[in-house]
Amino acid sequence: MEQREKDSKFIKQLCLLTLVVFAVSVALRNTLTVWWPAIVCFFFIVSIVMYLLSEKAKKKDMRKFANFYMGATVVKMMLYLGIIFVYILNFKEDGKRFAITFLCYYLIFSIFETYKLSRKEKKSDGK
Hints:
Helices cover 89% and strands 0% of the residues. By secondary structure, it is mainly alpha-helical. The chain has one domain. It is flat, with a radius of gyration of 16 Å. 12% of the residues are buried.
């Protein structure tokens, strides 16, 4: 499969996931932070950027790719915890809902990214 085709397929699947998350969030909007639409968009953009950077690193060297992916994951987790911490400090009344909403979306998008990555690795092992 050509790289553009792979990229297109990933982005389409990510769009579908994002639409499903958005639809479920609309139904649950009274229990979520008011920032939930921005958080969904944030994770959508981060997922695309991480995918493209991962594909670029994978083309160069698989060992470098593994190091890149692990490092990027650690940096993302630190950044995300920082965002949650800063928000809670500034908006105590909505802090709990923001943290729960943010972490739920983080899990959803991380599971998707990990699944897509592991699925690609299995396919390349089979060649």
